[in-house]
């Protein structure tokens, strides 16, 4: 292929300068008005209070010490993963809405930086770093979900960090102790993702199984280190497995303990997140309809849940979805060994998500792990298309993406009439407390009121 057609006929140094500039601009936008926009939604209000309670009293809103899960504003649960980052941060820096949301922003930035550092090694063309960066920072879902705390949004970030850390651990020349430390960090972040969202309990085990078997097959990971890695994840996930047994099998609604950990009883189950397995037309019919509904949701760019998407813009601009498919077929010829391995892992993640596509009802929250995979694959697709169609196409795509991003951020996100700026009836403390009557102890509510004053 004629290299004169490449979009970037510039030095690698200049490409890296462009990428760094984009990351810096993205970081500034994520931090802009972080303490006031968006308005606090009921889920975030509840999570803030859980974190405050842990910081100032050592127990959650239901007076449980070291909870494996939070009961949540409606008794249907909120994961503890984000609290593991927010609690020590707020203990150190003090509480404000800005400080409460800041760890989510920092984790998002760390995630994309780690991915780019991994892809950068021995690149066939550095321009892939630009396209992956562009796809990531231009995705409305990334921008929206990084600026407020919905507990499920943390899970794909920690999973991505865990996977990338594992790739560094197996490829860098390290001593046994250094490799063990990196593998442990990776296992910790993978575990965070398992704790991070119940819907991930279907996808993550399948993905990890395929991912680790693949690494073993291509001789990137030895059997010894594989067993160590699986053992670490298994031990760290054990309290959650016990909680899942109480929640799913026993359907317990009573609080209990397991060792030093508290297991909350849930007054509501998560069954509404799944298809109707007793569908009159049969389970296969229900699965097919579910997949069709999911495709329509992503193509239309709206899931009817305003807090994680803007109608028409989607989790990624619908016009870019086709590039996620193109990304799957990016030839090895145009990728370094690391870039090809990373693409294969994204494809394995896509395959692993098929069971969830079939039985988990589609919206950008429920299918949150799929969002990250599609966004990164779209970066590969944009890169491959730039090689095939040349610099005129590349320039056109860059302009289109930047225009769409500008319109989305200025006219829909930060617009004074937008949902994110104005909020809704579900953003007030009164709504939160009314929804929790009988679920949060009266003394705790009074204490929270005093903290607010």
Automatic annotation (TrEMBL):
The chain crosses the membrane at residues 15-32, 100-119, 128-148, 154-170, 201-218, 225-248, 305-328, 340-360, 366-386, 393-414. The keyword Transmembrane applies. Signal peptide: none annotated. Keywords: Membrane, Transmembrane, Transmembrane helix. Coiled coil: none annotated. This is Glycosyltransferase RgtA/B/C/D-like domain-containing protein. It comes from Lactiplantibacillus argentoratensis.
